[in-house]
């Protein structure tokens, strides 16, 4: 390196500090110094110093050949920066983007560099520097780069602001066609929505138009991109952002003739018809309202409005319904379209829409008595609505207009009335002059249609080859990673898959450890072990990774420490849940043994998918241990004992256990003869509920009546804690929801009450803290073994009022399974429901949705039994319970369906109150249904 170029490099190097560079970056810089001339090397030095503003001047002196010579070194630098996302690396990354853009002499290569995922950090303020290093290229070249960069982005991706500013500048400079990809359209809308922010950051002149309307008038992209706004996902949510109003601006441009009004109207309606997220549709609905279509314009689009009624979000459907009703009031809608609109709306669950539709029908019949026949037949669709108040409203409408409808409508009305609530059928029968069936009186005592009692599912055979083990371990790791990024939509790892993979690691480490290591190497390469940091959280399925990492030499195993009666390894950390400690102890023991003394297989591997172990199978495993001289791991044996299904132990299994000679066989025999541990009685906490910091959420608790369980034989400390004092005294943060919780039922598969006890905070948080996925374990507890006591029922009460529909569905599934197995105490659940509602943990409207789902599934008698126990407490509450009339209506419907009779506490008193409020009306209806004789 000599001459002017060498002098320039020395000058830049004298100003560049390199102590902050990583070893890899220093290697790249050293190679560049050996291979590049002085001028080219100065560019690399500027990148090293993060001096992006110097790059335009440095690169202006380079030939195309010199620029291309820098490319391999810049690519190598990009690779070295891949894992460096800290703030200190940001200046170097910015300089690297600009240098690479200027050194690639081909348009495709330059665009690929700018759009590379490792270089996604681009600043809008860098646009002038980027334009400077690209400025000596032809207009065609710059336009080609603009379209290629725009094309590398997807409409649903996170668009980099610097990329948009650069593309827009290149399009304007080159005069090329405007890009029409979804991402460019979306970012154009966002850019125009925030003028001060982006004009300032991109260096726009102070005199630039400030209002959105002014900017759009002068916008060279408007004519091309405005029609595309209705086709790109994500634009709608942007139309209500920013400092100005897009709806007003677009309406003004349409009024001026700059944009075609009919195209905007059709675009809005077609986009609303496609559906989407609520925030997305609100933007287009705002544009439609801003355009303020006339009656003539709506009449020309009546078919589209009708198509919005069945499935559009309620706000959109309400707008379409309102405009159609206005057209009908002006005589611009025929009977066929009136009936079509009613059929679309009256089956929807939104009460406001149904009430509005019935009011529209009533008004139509009042205006023109000749339409009464069409009106009453249309209103008949609401007689089958799940809400009895709306059924009654429809019946009142039919009663008002029946005399003008003619006798031809009566047969169809009678068929529709069969769907009415039993409480309304007598009135409908009298009105129509027909007899309607009484579900509760026909066919003898009512029996709910419950799901079949689930049978334990045997687990798959052990993994046969090391390749299968590697595949299963990789699947567990991938599932854990997916659950971390998408916890709301990913089921996570089930216990059977986790246990099968763990047993496979131990089993094949015993058979051929070297072969297993070779099979695991690609898995470890794709999923690097995070070392000590991985133990910061409560151990879960992902910590299977630790055993694989130990096998492959990525981590050194921890030796076991003496704890309690056994040598139990204790995981690092003090904040693990008891279940996390047990799982961590098992994994640490397995990792130590696969290197030092691998057993032939795990004793604790479940024989059924829910985690249970058949006694005969455990005895056979211990016999094989004795035959081969293998020593059981203390944690492995403890877990096997807790999974032992003692109820399935027959005489043959007990006899075989008696023939075992070592200490482990004696412990299993004692455990089976004692019928397992004697657990403390769970009881409801007598202390008053209290509110948790920050949330204001009451906690209703179950605790254990004594400190410890009576064990047939000692267990390790971590395992014994599971059977003793409950660690949480009501504090939510003690047992917060985590991915490892999915394994908890399999740790104590025959003691579900203890699992539910530890999960109390999680179940409560599904409602008052709106935790998503917290009820996923309720069906597993419903199918598990052991008593279903206060904790299980309280957990069910909480999750029936969960915030998210998928959690409520899981709770309903658990309710039906418990009822099918005969484990549901409806009175207990009803009292728990009333208490959680009174405490504010459960909202009645969500509880109502869950109970209605159970009724639709075929369990009205079960639901009535729950409500019969819940309603007295709710009716006696000092403050009115919001939503209580709906629960009374559902109880009346269930009682009428299943033929329930007899008083329910508090109902008669509520029915005797004065006034015509809905609570009183629904209480009277329930009272009348319960007091009706079966013969009637």
Overview of this protein structure:
- This is DUF6493 family protein.
- The chain has 936 residues and is mainly alpha-helical.
- It is 58% helix and 1% strand.
- The protein is built from 47 helices and 4 strands.
- A two-stranded antiparallel ribbon has the order 1-2.
- Helix 7 packs parallel to helix 9.
- It is flat, with a radius of gyration of 36 Å.
- Mean pLDDT is 85; it is low at 1-5, 155-160, 197-206, 562-574, 690-698 and 727-736.
Helix tally?
47
Strand content: under 5%
Q: Please compute the radius of gyration using only Cα atoms.
A: 36 Å
For the residues shown, what is the average pLDDT? Answer: 85
Which strands sit side by side, in order, in the main sheet?
A: 1-2
Q: Runs with pLDDT <50, length 5+?
A: 1-5, 155-160, 197-206, 562-574, 690-698, 727-736
Termini separation: 108 Å
In total, the number of strands is 4
Main sheet, how many strands, which sense, barrel? 2 strands, antiparallel
| Helix-strand category | mainly alpha
As a percent range, the share of helical residues equals 55-70%
Protein name: DUF6493 family protein
List keywords for this structure.
disordered N terminus, 4 strands, 47 helices, single chain, mainly alpha, 936 residues, DUF6493 family protein, two-stranded antiparallel sheet, 58% helix
């Amino acid at each position: 390196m000599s001459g002017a170029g060498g002098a320039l490099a020395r000058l830049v190097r004298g100003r560049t500090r390199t102590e902050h560079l990583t070893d890899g970056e220093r290697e790249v810089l050293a190679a560049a110094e050996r291979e590049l001339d002085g001028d080219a090397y100065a560019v690399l030095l500027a990148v090293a110093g993060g001096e992006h503003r110097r790059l335009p001047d440095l690169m202006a002196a380079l030939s195309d050949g010199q620029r291309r010579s820098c490319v391999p070194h810049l690519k190598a630098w990009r690779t070295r920066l891949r894992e460096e996302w800290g703030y200190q690396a940001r200046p170097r990354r910015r300089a690297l983007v600009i240098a690479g853009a200027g050194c690639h002499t081909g348009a495709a290569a330059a665009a690929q560099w700018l759009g590379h995922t490792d270089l996604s950090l681009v600043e809008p303020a860098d646009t002038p520097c980027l334009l400077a290093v690209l400025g000596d290229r032809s207009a065609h070249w710059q336009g080609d780069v603009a379209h290629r960069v725009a094309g590398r982005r997807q409409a649903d991706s996170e668009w980099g602001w610097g990329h948009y500013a650069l593309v827009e500048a290149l399009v304007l400079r080159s005069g090329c066609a405007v890009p029409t990809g979804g991402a460019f359209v979306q970012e154009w809308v966002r850019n125009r929505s925030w003028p001060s922010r982006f004009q300032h950051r991109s260096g726009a002149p102070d005199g630039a138009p400030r209002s959105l309307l002014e900017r759009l008038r002068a916008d060279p992209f408007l004519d091309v991109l405005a029609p595309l706004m209705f086709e790109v996902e994500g634009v709608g949510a942007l139309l209500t952002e920013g400092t100005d109003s897009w709806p007003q601006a677009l309406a003004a441009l349409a009024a001026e003739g700059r944009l075609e009004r009919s195209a905007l109207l059709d675009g809005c309606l077609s986009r609303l018809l496609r559906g989407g997220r609520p925030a997305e549709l609100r933007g287009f609905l705002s544009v439609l309202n801003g355009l303020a279509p006339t009656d003539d314009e709506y009449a020309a689009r009546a078919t589209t409005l009708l198509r919005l009624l069945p499935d559009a979000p309620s706000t959109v459907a309400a707008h379409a319904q309102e405009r159609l009703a206005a057209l009908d009031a002006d005589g611009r809608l025929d009977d066929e379209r009136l009936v079509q609109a009613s059929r679309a709306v009256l089956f929807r669950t939104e009460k406001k829409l149904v009430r509005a539709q019935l009011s529209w029908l009533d008004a139509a019949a009042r205006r023109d008595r000749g339409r009464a026949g069409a009106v009453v037949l249309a209103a008949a669709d609401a007689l089958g609505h799940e809400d009895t108040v709306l059924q009654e409203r429809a019946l009142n409408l039919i009663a008002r207009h029946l005399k003008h409808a003619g006798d031809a409508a009566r047969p169809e009305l009678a068929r529709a009335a069969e769907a009415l609530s039993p409480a309304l059928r007598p009135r409908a029968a009298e009105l129509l002059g027909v007899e309607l069936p009484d579900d509760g009186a026909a066919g003898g005592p009512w029996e709910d249609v419950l799901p079949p009692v689930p049978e334990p599912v045997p687990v798959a055979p052990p993994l046969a080859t090391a390749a299968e083990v590697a595949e299963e371990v990789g699947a567990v790791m991938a599932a854990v990673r997916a659950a971390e990024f998408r916890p709301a939509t990913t089921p996570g790892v089930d216990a059977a898959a986790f246990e099968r993979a763990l047993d496979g690691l131990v089993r094949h480490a015993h058979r051929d450890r070297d072969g297993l290591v070779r099979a695991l190497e690609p898995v470890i390469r794709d999923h690097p072990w995070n070392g000590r940091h991985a133990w910061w959280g409560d151990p879960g399925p992902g910590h299977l990774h630790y055993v694989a990492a130990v096998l492959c030499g990525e981590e050194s195993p921890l030796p076991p420490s003496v704890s309690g009666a056994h040598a139990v390894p204790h995981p690092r950390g003090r904040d693990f849940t008891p279940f996390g400690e047990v799982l961590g102890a098992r994994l640490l023991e397995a990792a130590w043994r696969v290197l030092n003394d691998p057993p032939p297989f795990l004793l604790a591997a479940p024989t059924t998918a829910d985690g249970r172990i058949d006694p005969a199978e455990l005895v056979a495993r211990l016999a094989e241990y004795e035959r081969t001289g293998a020593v059981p791991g203390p944690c492995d044996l403890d877990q096997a004992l807790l999974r032992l299904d003692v109820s399935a132990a027959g005489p043959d299994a007990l006899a075989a256990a008696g023939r075992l000679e070592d200490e482990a066989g004696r412990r299993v025999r004692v455990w089976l003869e004692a019928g397992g541990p004697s657990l403390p009685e769970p009881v409801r906490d007598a202390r008053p509920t209290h509110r948790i910091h920050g949330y204001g959420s009451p906690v209703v608790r179950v605790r254990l009546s004594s400190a410890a369980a009576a064990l047939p034989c000692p267990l390790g400390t971590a395992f014994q804690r599971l059977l003793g004092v409950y660690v949480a005294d009501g504090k939510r943060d003690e047992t917060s929801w985590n991915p490892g919780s999915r394994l908890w039922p399999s740790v104590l598969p025959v003691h579900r009450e203890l699992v539910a006890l530890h999960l109390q905070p999680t179940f409560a948080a599904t409602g008052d803290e709106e935790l998503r996925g917290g009820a996923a374990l309720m069906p597993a507890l419903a199918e598990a073994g052991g008593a279903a006591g206060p904790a299980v029922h309280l957990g069910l009460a909480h999750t029936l009022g969960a915030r998210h529909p998928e959690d409520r569905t899981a709770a309903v599934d658990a309710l039906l399974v418990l009822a099918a197995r005969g484990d549901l105490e409806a009175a207990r659940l009803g009292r728990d429901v009333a208490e959680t509602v009174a405490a504010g943990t459960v909202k009645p409207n969500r509880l109502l949705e869950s109970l209605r789902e159970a009724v639709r599934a075929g369990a009205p008698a079960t639901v009535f039994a729950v409500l019969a126990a819940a309603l007295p407490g709710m009716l006696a509450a000092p403050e009115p319970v919001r939503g209580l009339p709906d629960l009374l209506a559902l109880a009346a419907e269930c009682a009428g369906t299943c033929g329930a009779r007899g008083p329910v506490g508090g109902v008669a008193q509520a029915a005797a109150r004065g006034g015509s409020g809905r609570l009183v009306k629904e209480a009277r209806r329930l009272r009348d249904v319960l007091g009706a004789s079966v013969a009637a």
